[in-house]
Design goal:
936 residues; mainly alpha; five-stranded parallel β-sheet; 61% helix; globular; disordered N terminus
Length: 936
């Protein structure tokens, strides 16, 4: 055992500036080097591993390789204390490129300056604009040279920065930008914990561990070597530090067993390493110990940002710490060699010493109120009203900048320091309300539970319940969430009817998503217990409309003019009004309200609104498919940033439907599959039905009518009842069309008639038209015409152009088959023009074939030139035709100007044009109409 047993093997020699060779990580290094290669198509990699496995060393090596290949490297390093400072990690990334920030378009530049606190923030931050600004900035830097963003210890980065970076990472395809993140294996990184490719670092094998020991200046031998190998278990940091500890012990004059590491015992490896580092503090000069504690309390990679601090590299106090292997000097000051060193220094100190260090730092940071507030809090041994108030002000600043997680943490700590229980409960409720915008339901519920444990105040208790319910309504746990909201509303009905109604409004949203009839009955029962207060009329109408739109449709319609007047100057009311109008099939009203809301206030919120997908469906129904996908882009981006699967699924179903209508059936099936994978179809009947309708449309577009029927049949139960009380009925006509071609006429007719009986006089004009079309398709040929004529009788049905054009085509086909060819030409011409204008290629081709059979001279029209474009290219072409610049298109669709330019570059040859100015004349018909009408 006296011999070194590593033997020959691959060792990656350190590049200039490194301290340690890299042993046993050849495969991992190769993967990292491939990722940062300018020719790589992988824009993102998450490197994970336990403490001490070498993540930072590997990231440093990859960064040096990228720099050697000409890349611009931007870096950030997470720290525990800065996790409470909104956008602190993003600030680290972008601080070296201030000129690039200033070169951004005004809206994007202003959003970033607000985020960094360089300008007073608005009341409502636009988080999507911040993400778009980061994407645009990195893309612009990539115009000059490849860009690599490296974020180490990402598990400690603030949530606002991670949201902005993950937003960017999801849009890096085709950009000369790569992102590497390092994080501890047991610490999920929000925004990157689902879809990011992961490279996991395991322990070194025995041969590599021995090689690493062989490379130490004083390589251990004998029993000492065996003990080190056993205790380190392949962890590179443990191998290095246990060896260093043994060397220091020998240098101090110890012999025999005392030179060996202590027995492993029950402590985890991390704790043992901390003890090794702590032991090196013994005997250090007092000035060094004080400097180390201040550095540990500061806990930032940018200690040099505090010029009065004791971290200048020329300070002699650091020499003993450097010799002990605790710190290293960098160009920007002094840093601990590893986060565990910082932890050992901090936790070895007494409470009094730590408090004194934080007080000293608070004094040094008088001009940085947020950092100062947290140091004052760390120095507090007991409740302190003044410090609690400082933290509350910090929370307000963070919230205005969009740092909701940082704000909630500040309010939580403020609650802990508040002297009075009622003040503490109030702050906890505020913390819960703020944490709602992070999408972290478990955290919101934890804060709400803490608030309930500190107060008997009914108002605060109700508010705590309402905040948890607000977020819960947007999750996929519909059965559980509905029960919780309904139970709380029932408890509060007598004493606090306004709060009960607010909770019931959330329960109504859950009822819409889930589609369970028992929930409708429960909502109706609780609503009946609440007083008919005039001031509550708005919410009462919302609850009734969303949960049960057909029982008294006439009464609900009569309330719409009053609600419209009330919503005139309130954006949240205007959007809610539009949703109610859509639920009631008053699409023209809904479109006007959504247009006004988006035109005046835009979609700026940090959360998807309950039933926010209604806006996209409204635009789909009106034939503004490009606008629908724009709304989906923002809705989906916000949902992804907050981790709300149900909202992402809602956006996916709209996307799938538009793609199917446009003829991109493969992409439609993928998006519908995405939606179904995110939800439980028994919990989220609305998403399930919308996805099945999209799959049915895709199959019909492909001419696979049996498959179309099978999908659409699943929109109704085995006995023909709607699976979802609102989403199922619009599928009746498509179900009938598929049934006729699949030989399932009788079964479909039974479903249609059952639906007609269930709706009776409460059916909207739109649904009556769809039922009439279905009856015409399913009727005996001699009896079909009155049904088709009835489906087309109401001029208002032009507000659903795709559905109307389908009926016109059905009527024309029936007329031609009855040899009434002259009569067929009118509806055929109108249907063909509508399908062309909408960009509904499969239906255009079907109408064109029918028109030729009817003797019409049908020439290929300009929209056919779009057939070779992807859905996103068609969307970009449509916006460019309206005169939007690449930057403006990027802001609309959350793409970089480079990506927009790339799509245009690839699209022009397919369209047979060479200049942007030719776009409007080429595609004004199909895309301007299909994509946009009116504002927005």
């Amino acid at each position: 055992m006296d011999k070194r047993t590593g033997g020959p093997g691959p060792v990656s020699r350190p590049e200039p500036g490194t301290e340690e060779p890299i042993v046993g990580r050849d495969a991992e290094l190769a993967r990292l080097f491939r990722t940062v290669d300018p020719a790589s198509s992988d824009p993102l990699l998450l490197l994970v591993g336990e403490v001490g496995t070498g993540k930072s060393t590997l990231l440093d090596s990859a960064a040096r390789r990228a720099e050697a290949n000409g890349a611009r490297v931007l870096r950030a390093h997470g720290s525990e204390s800065e996790s409470t400072l909104a956008f602190s990690a993003l600030h680290q990334v972008l601080r070296p490129v201030p000129a690039a920030v200033e070169a951004l378009p005004e809206r994007q530049r202003t959003a970033l300056r607000h985020a960094f606190g360089a300008e007073p923030a608005p009341a409502e931050p636009d988080l999507m604009m911040i993400g778009t600004a980061v994407l645009g900035l990195l893309s612009a830097l990539g115009d000059r040279q490849p860009v690599l963003v490296v974020v180490d210890d990402a598990q400690w980065c603030d949530r606002a920065s991670l949201d902005a970076l993950s937003f960017t990472a999801r849009r890096l395809a085709g950009e000369p930008v790569t992102m590497l993140l390092g994080a501890r294996a047991d610490s999920p990184v929000p925004g990157f914990d689902r879809h990011a490719p992961v490279l996991a670092l395991g322990p070194l094998d025995d041969a590599a561990a021995n090689r690493l020991l062989d490379l130490r200046p004083e390589s251990p031998t004998g029993r000492t070597r065996a003990r080190i190998l056993d205790q380190a278990a392949g962890n590179p940091l443990a191998l290095t530090e246990l060896t260093r500890a043994a060397t220091l012990t020998r240098a101090a004059g110890a012999h025999d067993a005392t030179t060996e590491p202590p027995a492993a015992g029950p402590l985890p490896l991390t704790d043992r390493l901390e003890r090794i580092f702590a032991a090196r503090l013994d005997g250090l000069p007092a000035a060094t110990t004080r400097a180390l504690l201040l550095l540990a309390a500061m806990d930032t990679v940018d200690s040099a940002a505090v010029p009065a601090g004791p971290w200048h590299t020329e300070d002699d106090a650091w020499l003993p710490a450097e010799r002990a292997g605790l710190v290293r000097r960098t160009g920007r000051g002094v840093r601990f060699r590893h986060p565990l060193v910082r932890s050992a220094v901090y936790h070895t100190a007494s409470f009094d010493a730590r408090h004194a260090a934080h007080r000293a730092l608070a004094e040094l940071l008088r001009h940085e109120p947020d950092r100062r507030a947290w140091h004052l809090a760390a120095a507090c041994p007991r409740p302190d009203a003044a410090v609690s108030a400082e933290l509350e002000r910090t929370a307000d600043r963070a919230r205005r900048r969009g740092g909701y997680a940082a704000a909630a943490k500040a309010l939580h700590r403020a609650a802990e320091l508040a002297p009075g229980r009622e003040d503490s409960a109030r702050l906890l409720v505020r913390a819960a309300a703020t944490a709602v915008f992070t999408g972290d339901l478990a955290w919101v519920e934890e804060l709400a539970a803490a608030a309930r444990g500190r107060t008997d105040d009914a108002a605060l208790l109700a508010e705590a319940t309402a905040q948890a319910g607000r977020l819960a309504a947007l999750t996929v746990r519909h059965t559980t969430v509905f029960a919780r909201l309904a139970d709380a509303a029932e408890r509060l009905a007598a004493e606090r009817p306004a709060t009960a109604l607010d909770l019931l409004a959330g329960a109504a949203v859950v009822r819409f998503y889930s589609g369970q009839d028992a929930q409708r009955d429960r909502v109706r029962e609780i609503l009946g217990r609440l007083p008919e207060d005039a001031s509550h009329a708005w919410l009462r109408t919302w609850v009734r409309t969303v949960s049960d739109p057909f029982t008294d449709r006439a009464g609900l319609l009569s309330a719409l003019p009053r609600l419209a007047a009330e919503a005139e100057h309130r954006p949240e009311r205007l959007t809610a009004f539009a949703i109610m109008a859509w639920v009631l099939d008053e699409t023209p009203l809904a479109v006007r309200a959504f247009d006004e809301a988006f035109g005046r206030w835009e979609l700026r919120g940090p959360l998807p609104e309950g039933l926010g997908g209604a806006a996209a469906w409204t635009y789909v129904e009106q034939g503004r498919w490009g606008r629908a996908r724009e709304v989906c882009a923002r809705f989906g981006a916000v949902a992804a940033a907050t981790g709300l699967d149900h909202a992402m699924a809602c956006a996916a179903t709209v996307d799938a439907t538009v793609l199917a209508y446009q003829g991109d059936t493969a992409a439609a099936r993928v998006r519908a599959g995405d939606a179904l994978a995110l939800v439980d179809p028994l919990q989220s009947r609305s998403v399930s039905v919308y996805a099945r309708r999209a799959l049915g449309a895709a199959a019909a577009a492909d001419g696979a009518y049996e498959a179309a029927y099978d999908h659409l049949r699943r929109v109704f139960t085995a006995d023909g009842a709607p699976v979802h009380y609102h989403a199922s009925y619009p599928a009746l006509a498509d179900l009938a069309a598929a049934a006729v071609r699949a030989g399932r006429r009788e079964e479909a007719a039974a479903i249609v008639e059952r639906s007609a009986r269930a709706l009776t006089e409460d059916a909207s004009p739109r649904l009556r038209a769809l039922i009439s079309r279905a009856r015409g398709l399913l009727a005996d040929p001699e009896e079909a015409e009155p049904h088709f004529r009835a489906a087309l009788a109401d001029p208002a049905l032009a507000h659903w152009p795709f559905e109307r054009a389908q009926t016109l085509l059905d009527l024309a086909e029936w007329l031609r088959r009855r040899r009434r060819i002259a009569e067929a030409r009118g509806p055929l011409t109108e249907a063909l023009e509508t399908f062309r204008r909408l960009g509904a290629r499969p239906w255009t081709e079907r109408a064109r074939a029918e028109a030729r059979a009817a003797g019409l001279d049908v020439a290929d029209a300009a929209p056919d030139a779009l057939a070779g474009l992807s859905p996103q290219q068609r969307q970009i072409i449509g916006l460019a035709a309206r005169g939007l610049t690449n930057r403006e298109i990027g802001e609309r669709l959350f793409l970089s100007p480079r990506t927009v330019s790339s799509h245009l570059y690839r699209s022009f040859p397919k369209l047979g044009i060479t200049a942007r100015s030719q776009l409007r004349d080429l595609i004004e018909g199909p895309l301007t109409a299909a994509g946009h009408h009116g504002p927005g």
